Amino acid sequence: MTDLRLVVFDVDGTLIDSQDAIVTSVGHAFAALGRPVPDRATVLSIVGLSLPQAMARLMPDLTEAGVQDAIAAYRARILELRAEAEGEGHAPLYPGARDALDRLHRRDELFLGVATGKARRGLDHAFASHGIGHYFHTCQTADHHPSKPHPSMLHQACDDIGIEPGQAIMLGDTSFDMEMGRAAGCRTIGVSWGYHPVADLRAAGADCVIDSFAALDAALEAVWGMADE
What we know:
By secondary structure, the protein is α/β, with parallel strands linked by helices.
């Protein structure tokens, strides 16, 4: 086993506060199908899933064709929002995110990755808007993997770096992130500033939960210490 380590970041709700765009776009999809729009908490509960799974969970009676219609309406609104904001600048980075990425990126033994329910096109927009793409050595997106919490994204990320899952930590704001990390054999750190309650993160198997990016470095060392015991 090498001394290399990997930290895999979720995007929406962990690095980027995209909730307004997500809620607006889901509402547009519901309206396009002539359905009452769910409340904000219900919409945020599905963040992290890939779009087909998210729409099917929100509208379980939809046919496959209906799911595709909902996805098309959602994506149309997201594209409008990007055009209005000239990218994904309407969805800001969380406080401390850039500094944390910069700190970790400078460590020779540490690699950074992304595992997101976004499509690659959406991730590229986010990277371009915030100038953070250069931090990441491996990027896994919804158009190349099963939806979270399937472990495929994390297995591929570990393969890209050439490490075992036990040398990786999944950092995310949803129970789906924690479940994916556990399924992959990785350690997990939840963040309290995202879209799922802290109690749900702990119930899903988070090794710890942090309240700010300032706490991330110490949390990484503590969680990797658990793996070494």
